[in-house]
Write a structure and sequence with these properties.
Elements: E1 6-13, H1 17-28, E2 33-36, E3 49-53, H2 54-59, H3 62-65, E4 70-73, E5 77-81, E6 84-88, E7 93-97, H4 98-111, E8 115-117, E9 120-128, E10 131-139, E11 147-158, H5 171-174, E12 185-195, H6 198-208, E13 215-219, E14 226-231, E15 238-246, H7 254-263, E16 268-280, E17 289-290, E18 293-295, H8 311-325, H9 334-364, H10 367-375, H11 381-388, H12 397-407, H13 410-428, H14 436-450
């Protein structure tokens, strides 16, 4: 059964955080928007407790949606590698309930006039020359015969996740976005557990120097890029656990790390809720938009590489997208889509690319390197706070060279010290106007610094 075509200014595919945020921002500038989700709407996106920079929480007005979105706030943040610890006196992060956030964004989208379609799977795209102009969706409503829903729009936004349900069906975009390899993908699991034995928890906290309200992150638990994070709320009745590692055979996935940790702690009670995800930890694709299509969130690799958090980047990307689209009669026109990708790359991509270098160094070096950096205050409270806030740390190249040489780490960390300022400057010079020749040269320069093939061949 085929439906008549429905026309919108923009069609956003994926109703998780990326899609919901993009939809609300586009509605705010007066666009007629459709939000499409393959799952039932209540199952869209992440369902876990997620830590984001407190500044981002308030800058993007999340507290206005629903006060209950803010699950936890405050406490110290402790980073530990081996026996070495670094204490951040006041965490710059807040813990938010992603399921509540998504529910609030969906309600806001409807209130702003968006049309929401769930249980709709992308099956085909329509084009005018190379530009996407229509999308065919297979609908699967309970108790009804599957049908086809056809939507037309000036702008399509792929917010469907790392697999790119729209991206991979648009040849003009797919050839530039070949997907991250396994060493640039993290398997993460977040869980909430009850506390069965309060005295056992207190003994554990005393042993590890933890206070109620603290977060402690053990780095290198599998070697290289892997972490286990424990948050103890002030009420000490439940726990928030998060683990993640690179998607390579030598690493256990986050779920296995958590299972083993919980088995070793008899004071931990029952599992309340759990969520897992495959998260890209590479810098963003060199191209994030073409006429008629923009990528946002995991679909564009807009995730902070150092710890795999995407919320701050997604909220920023959604705002940039709306800001660049708003003055244009054609929301998906070449100027709008180019300004979106240039704006994101210069503002956010520059920071992500530097931390991509840091991530690659972490993957390729043993945990002892991280311990040495913590022990010698190269990764001190200021540097770690900057990383948690997804900002560049307050260090200079000259001081790093001196310290790395003194510690005998220059062979392991020297390339990062040299390349980081070059990468940052290159991203700040991302071509500001539509020019594929200039962008191709830019992409090749980036690839040279990362010792890999360019996105734009």
């Amino acid at each position: 059964m085929y439906s008549p075509r429905k026309k919108f200014d923009a069609v956003v595919v994926g109703a998780g955080l990326s899609g919901a945020a993009a939809c609300c921002n586009l509605c705010n500038i007066g666009l007629n928007v459709a939000l499409v989700e393959a799952l039932p709407l209540s199952e869209a996106g992440a369902g876990w407790i997620n830590a984001i920079p407190e500044k981002s929480f308030f800058d993007h007005g999340l507290e206005e949606l629903d006060p209950a979105i803010l699950a936890y706030k405050g406490g110290r943040y402790i980073v530990q590698s081996g026996q070495q610890k670094v204490f951040i006196k006041e965490t710059p992060l807040v813990q938010i309930d992603m399921k509540r956030l998504l529910g609030a964004l969906h309600k806001r989208a409807e209130k702003l006039g968006a049309t929401l379609f769930d249980r709709c799977r992308v099956v085909d795209m329509k084009f005018l020359k190379q530009r996407p102009t229509g999308i065919a969706l297979e609908t699967r409503k309970p108790g009804s015969t599957p049908g086809i829903l056809n939507l037309e729009a000036s702008l399509f936004v792929d917010a469907s996740g790392i697999t790119g349900a729209v991206r991979r069906r648009v040849p003009a975009m797919a050839r530039f976005c070949r997907g991250p390899d396994e060493s640039h993908v993290c398997n993460a699991t977040q869980e909430t557990w009850t506390v069965a034995d309060g005295s056992g928890l207190k003994n554990f906290m005393e042993k590890h120097g933890i206070e109620p309200g603290d977060t402690i992150a053990w780095t290198g638990v599998e070697g290289g890029y892997s972490t286990l994070t424990l948050y103890v709320p002030a009420h000490m009745e439940t726990l928030e656990l998060l683990a993640g590692s690179i998607n390579l055979p030598r690493y256990r996935p986050g779920a296995s790390i958590l299972r083993d940790f919980c088995k070793q702690q008899p004071w931990i009670g029952r599992l309340v809720k759990s969520g897992s995800g495959t998260i890209p930890i590479r810098r963003p694709y060199d191209i994030l938009a073409i006429p008629g299509l923009a990528l946002i969130g995991d679909a564009g690799l807009q995730v902070f590489p150092a710890h795999g958090s995407g919320t701050h980047s997604i909220l920023t990307a959604a705002k940039i997208l709306a800001d660049t689209v708003s003055p244009r009669a054609d929301p998906g026109g070449e100027r709008s889509t180019w300004e979106y990708q240039a704006g994101f790359q210069r503002k956010v991509g520059a920071v992500h690319a530097v931390y991509d270098l840091v991530t690659r160094m972490t993957i390729n070096n043993p945990a002892s390197t991280t311990r040495a950096l913590l022990e010698n205050a190269i990764l001190g409270p200021d540097q770690l706070t900057a990383g948690l806030c997804q900002e560049l740390p307050p260090v200079t190249v000259g001081s790093l060279f001196k310290t790395f040489t003194k510690l005998g780490l220059i062979s392991k960390t020297g390339p990062l010290t040299v390349k980081a300022p070059l990468v940052h400057a290159l991203y700040k010079a991302y071509p500001s106007k539509p020019d594929m020749d200039a962008l191709g040269k830019w992409s090749r320069s980036v690839a040279l610094l990362f010792s890999e093939d360019p996105d734009i061949l």
